[in-house]
User: Fold these one by one.
Assistant:
Number 1:
Amino acid sequence: MKLCKKCGAYQNDTRFVCLDCNEMLGDSLSSDEATQIEGELRAKIQKKLNEDDPLAVNKTDRIIGNMSLFGIAVSIFMALFWRLLMYNVFNEGFYLALGALVLFIISALYALAFRTVWSWHVLMIRIHARIGDDTEPSCLSLIERKITIIFCFTVALVMLAFAIGYAISYTA
């Protein structure tokens, strides 16, 4: 790979003249430089493709999704705490932990695997309405996705906080 010093275009190693500005090209880049530049170009292309894809997972979705996965683990621990360590006690803390678990799962699915969730929606629509394959989410579906993620995550956090509060007051 060669880099044009005048216009900054990347050219093939077999070229001697830049196709963009007709400037003479110098020596080829080292393999390390070429690999780094190719990686940067691939990342830019992938980013551009994701900007146009309504089903792509953005940075905020990844953060909330990963926090939801952590919330799933804490909710399971709290449910097991109430069920096993508190001698089969079924009280508000246990049910709050289970509710938080369900909401964290929904939040994680919508945040990290919306393409799969959308495929399930499309499958249900096809079964009932018998429509074609070119179904894409509407703006309303995308807004609903964001509202679902934020609502489920927030309510699950509150429920988990109450479950932890019950556990602390119960053991004290």
Note: Residues 2-52 form one domain.
Number 2:
Amino acid sequence: MSAAPGSGTAIPARAATSRAWSTRSRFRRRSSRSGSGPSATARNPGARCDIESLEYSFSFSEALQQEWKWPERYGTQPEILRYINHVAERFDLLRDVVLETRVVSAEFDPERNRWTLTTDKGDVANAPFCIMATGNLSTPRVPDFKGLERFKGKWYHSGLWPHEGVDFSGLRVAVIGTGSSGVQLIPYVARQAKTLHVFQRTANFILPAKNMPLDPGTERAHKSEYPERRRAAYDTPFGIGGYPPPVKSALEATPEERQRTFEAKWEQGGSINFLYAYNDLLLSQESNETAAEFVRQKVRSIVRDQAVAELLAPKDHPIGTKRLCLDTNYYEVYNQRNVTLVDARRTPVPYPSRGDPARRTAHARSALPIRRHRFRHGIRCDDRRACRDRRAHERRPNAERGMV
């Protein structure tokens, strides 16, 4: 989800907006409840949004945003789905939404200036506008690991998590991938599993969420500022209001001042908050490095085994250039005796062999959760500068860049 399990919020939003434009074109309802997209399918333990609940909400109704009560700073998947269903029912949106239906063709007629959409059920819709807000995470992808079909244990995908949940108690488990879904899932599995091996290809910058029950005073103050916050969101690079834009460069501050600033942002939690520490963290590599090194030092201070800490400390990309993950006790997991971090660049993800079980890799485990997103470009190389430039790297001969 991204790790954010809330992309399904687009369904009520589109329905509400479409009704405001026109009441002549409507879709027939095929299910009594909403909930398609990651909001419904990303049910893995720990799944929650990485944008604060009070901002991760609809703004088209003042009454709705004032009345809805979010229980925590960051909404969980069940809470977000409950919110979506509430909105759909409150505004009677489901009569304008078709669920469990696939659009198989969308053709535009320039002479009539209209779209014709055909579904797998044979229904046809005509409209002057067609907004294909399908997103890029709407279809979970199972990595094509060689031999997965011969794996004798159970395996799970974070984007296709069973409704009934999974009990990992006493099992030997491997988690493949340390993106947002993996970061959310791993602490939960580590509490139950007999042993847990985490396969990490690329270390990510991970910041503390500092999640907590939503304080009533904080909620009242936030809601009283909704009009200003919503307007301010249009002028921010992240589309989220409430964060005063910084006016100072990280290089204008002394090392001691930067340390105090980053410490305060770390304790407050959140990704946008941290990147707003200074005004050039995403513009100056030198400034960015001050923030990146602060996070690396935090990792080194939390994880006792310094060899493991170095594997977890990102060094191949500037902080903020890939989506930041938010965690709750993620780094602390690697201090547990039952948890092992595996460098998937040096030890590629294994697969069960057909031969003698004794020849099978030690990392073929009896339960195998696979996180939501695919690996980037499946390569390993000692030349980190080349790896930063995928295109340049892929132009090099295979023998030079060492295909995994």
Note: The chain has three domains: 7-99, 148-208+323-401, 229-301.
